[in-house]
Amino acid sequence: MPSLQGVLNRRVLPRYDLPLLELGADMRTVLYPGTFNPIHNGHVDLVRRAAGLFDRVVLGIATSPQKNPSVLQTRVNLAKEALAAMPNVEVIGFNTLTVDFAREVGASVILKGIRTVTDFEYEFQMLNMNRALSPGLETIFLAPSEEHSYISSTLVRQIASYGGDISQFVPAAVEAAIRNGDIG
Which fold has domain 30-178? Predict the structure, then answer.
């Protein structure tokens, strides 16, 4: 029987038989994709935490058939402003499959925020589809901090549409852009 010290000193070795991403992908880059319409404090919280876990975080702002593509650049600019204090974070707009964009930016991991079981069910389906399209691409889920767990872009837009105060949910520049009708 091994001694307690022997057990404590034992290292778990990496499994080299597991599939890896295509050569050239940076194991330290994570892609956080979404429409971010608008970016809110929950998103900022997840990016801040991811920035501490990865060398490089790419916030990929996607166009979508359901979203107005004309405001993509505005959403990119607002996200850049909201995340400017984090030097290892880039904000890039994209209009391709997420797996193709991940490959383009050298990401080996996709980050998704999960607030509810409903979020998980949708994101788990997307994870499996992404895995079918790009088998080496991993997905990790982060839950937002408790103080941001109920915020969603949809709720922010709804509150703003009724003239409600959204200042506690979004960065100041986003609040101003919504009030001015630049996004929303």
Answer: Rossmann fold (3.40.50)
